[in-house]
Design goal:
With about 110 residues, the chain is mainly alpha-helical. It has 5 helices and 2 strands, in the order αβααβαα. The protein has one domain. The longest helix has 19 residues.
C-alpha cells in the first residue's frame, strides 16, 4: 500500500513542481512509528534502482532533507553514486534531476 502511495505522491510532486521533506512524505503516504524514515529511505532507494535501470530521472530527488540545505539527504547521493551517476557536484546533479523530472511530468 505505502509503495503505491509513494509512487502516486512523487508523480504528483513532479507534475506540480513540488519538493517534499522526508518527514512530510512519510506522513503523506501513511508511514508512522519508529523507523519510518528508514523504511521510507529503503523504498526511495528501491525506486532509484528502478529509475536508473529504466534510464529515467531519479524520483527520489524530489525528497529533501530537513537539514540538507535544499538537497536530499547524503544517502541519496551515495546511492546515486553507487548506481553510476556522477555526483561530484551534488547541487548540479540534483538540479539536473529535478529539471528532468519536472519536464517529463509536464
Amino acid at each position: 500500500m505505502s509503495e503505491a502511495r509513494l509512487r502516486a505522491v512523487l508523480e504528483d510532486c513532479a507534475r506540480v513542481g513540488r519538493l517534499v521533506t522526508y518527514g512530510a512524505l512519510a506522513a503523506e503516504i501513511g508511514l508512522d512509528g519508529a523507523g519510518r524514515i528508514a523504511r521510507l529511505t529503503d523504498m526511495l532507494e528501491a525506486l532509484m534502482v528502478e529509475d536508473a535501470g529504466a534510464g529515467h530521472p531519479l524520483r527520489a530527488a524530489l525528497v529533501l532533507g530537513r537539514t540538507s540545505a535544499g538537497l536530499p539527504a547524503r544517502g541519496f547521493f551515495l546511492k546515486a553514486a553507487e548506481l553510476g551517476f556522477d555526483v561530484s557536484d551534488p547541487e548540479t546533479f540534483h538540479r539536473a534531476q529535478i529539471t528532468a523530472l519536472f519536464s517529463a511530468a509536464s
